[in-house]
Amino acid sequence: MTRLATRPAGGTFPLGNRVVNRMGYGAMQLAGPHVFGPPKDREAALAVLRAAVAGGVNHIDTSDFYGPHITNRLIREALHPYPEELVIVTKVGAVRGDDASWLPAFTPADLTRAVHDNLRNLGVAALDVVNLRMMGNIHTPSEGSIEEPFTVLANLQRQGLIRHLGISNATASQVAEARGIAEVVSVQNHYNLAHRDDDALIDSLAAMGIAYVPFFPLGGFTPLQSAILSDVASTLGATPMQAALAWLLRRAPNILLIPGTSSLSHLHENLEAAGLDLPEAMLAALNAIGRDRSP
Ligand SMILES: NC(=O)c1ccc[n+]([C@@H]2O[C@H](COP(=O)([O-])OP(=O)(O)OC[C@H]3O[C@@H](n4cnc5c(N)ncnc54)[C@H](OP(=O)(O)O)[C@@H]3O)[C@@H](O)[C@H]2O)c1
Questions:
Q1: The domain spanning residue 52 has which CATH number?
Q2: What pTM was computed for the model?
């Protein structure tokens, strides 16, 4: 596959000191079942990463707690030395138990270790973007000060180990608190066609020029299913997942996509979604899905 032209179909948006294509890639699906252990097909995982970059992706989302360590090592093996334009975004705030559990890890020692694990396993001297991943209620945020852990990351940034900071699974007030400590270049929260708690946050971040990166853009472990989505997709001659991604790209200019897949054919399908045009009537029909579910 050839590289996309300089004006990629989905457009671009600034992420830190770089401008990235809005269609990126999330690497979490490359680890084994339950994001734990090695992938069942290592060569296929490496091929997906190489195909993503060849297909125009210059924003990859990862964490050293995927595997753990596995996903970052796959990224390094597939792509190092990294293309100049590639931005790798990682996250810290958890470690994995032997039973694949996700354990909060927010002490200064935990966070410092996590940053060094990411540096070593990705094979870089500084991390492009590090998200402080709050644990909250696992996939939805809960209130509480982020001052202590975010200050630890801000100090590591001052030491030159991190270029830019972001925050993940965070409330609007936690985003504001973080912005009072250091510049926040991105917020990564659970959001998709059917899960729209962050509508107001997205719009306020757009006004400030801050990227919003939805995790579970396709529904994550529970893939999106909707008769309206299927109807829109078939009218467009697209798949439901492509229509769901196209809706996100239309939703706000600061949304950067990181759909996750371990499959080459799904990767190509997702990249093609950046070129889908959603007519107004279809946009309105898709908008109604989230509205129907809101409280
Ligand atoms: N900050 C956080 O707390 C957080 C949490 C979760 C995820 N993330 C990040 O967000 C990224 C995206 O989230 P995600 O990967 O969990 O969920 P997702 O992108 O919503 O969905 C991934 C699931 O959809 C399937 N899929 C992907 N493309 C498809 C297609 N075209 N047709 C049919 N099925 C398709 C994948 O299976 P196949 O592998 O079979 O394609 C996988 O099961 C992750 O990779 C990770 O980097 C961050």
A1: 3.20.20.100
A2: 0.96
